[in-house]
């Protein structure tokens, strides 16, 4: 039973609209074989799809995501993901993972959270490498006193009226 078949049918139809018959048909398996691999049924199947889609999202951004060491590398990564996800449209694995499968499976939500942490680690390492290479500001700009005051004391647009009488 191919993992790609399971994921593809859920990516195309959505978690709610996909039946086990759809998955069996797409993957070329019978329900007996499906339950042999996924004893816990739908929840276990959704978890397997979430894990596959998370790896796909991460792999789709390689090698760029792991090599964010210069401004040019950041631009190449940006261009890659914009093009890739634009081409995938509604069948984007990130959207399927976070917005669809994760909605119905707590275990899939944990997979999504792990993917985001992994992604953040790569981005953080890339920022630090780019800063070390002198191609990015070493630290974010500190707020000035005037900006801080503006945040602390918002202006009110109207004045209070006095009551008479």
Helix content: 55-70%
Distance between the termini: 83 Å
- Find the structural class using helix and strand composition: mainly alpha
Low-confidence stretches are 150-158
User: Can you count the beta strands?
Assistant: 0
SS summary, helix count: 8
Largest sheet: none
Q: Could you say which overall geometry the principal axes of the C-alpha atoms support?
A: elongated
Relevant terms:
165 residues, mainly alpha, elongated
Written account of the structure:
- The protein is an all-alpha fold.
- The chain contains 8 helices and no strands.
- It has helices spanning about 5-15, 20-25, 30-35, 40-60, 70-90, 95-105, 105-130, 145-150.
- The longest helix is centred in the C-terminal third of the chain and has 27 residues, at about 105-130.
- The chain is elongated and about 60 Å long.
Can I get a quick summary?
With 165 residues, the protein is mostly helical. It has helices at residues 3-13, 20-27, 31-37, 42-60, 71-88, 93-104, 106-132, 145-152.
Lay out the secondary structure.
Layout: H1 3-13, H2 20-27, H3 31-37, H4 42-60, H5 71-88, H6 93-104, H7 106-132, H8 145-152
């Amino acid at each position: 039973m191919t993992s790609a078949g399971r994921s593809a049918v859920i990516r195309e139809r959505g978690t709610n609209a996909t039946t086990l018959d759809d998955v069996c048909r797409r993957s070329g398996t019978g329900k007996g074989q499906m339950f042999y691999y996924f004893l816990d049924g739908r929840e276990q199947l959704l978890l397997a799809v979430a894990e596959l889609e998370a790896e796909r999202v991460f792999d789709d951004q390689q090698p760029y995501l792991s090599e964010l060491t210069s401004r040019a590398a950041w631009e190449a990564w940006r261009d890659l993901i914009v093009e890739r996800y634009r081409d995938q449209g509604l069948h984007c694995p990130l959207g399927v993972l976070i917005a669809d499968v994760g909605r119905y499976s707590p275990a899939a939500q944990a997979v999504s959270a792990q993917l985001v942490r992994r992604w953040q680690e790569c981005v953080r390492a890339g920022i630090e490498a780019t800063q070390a290479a002198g191609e990015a500001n070493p630290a974010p700009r500190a707020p000035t006193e005037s900006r801080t005051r503006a945040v602390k004391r918002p202006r009110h647009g109207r004045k209070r009226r006095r009551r008479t009488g």
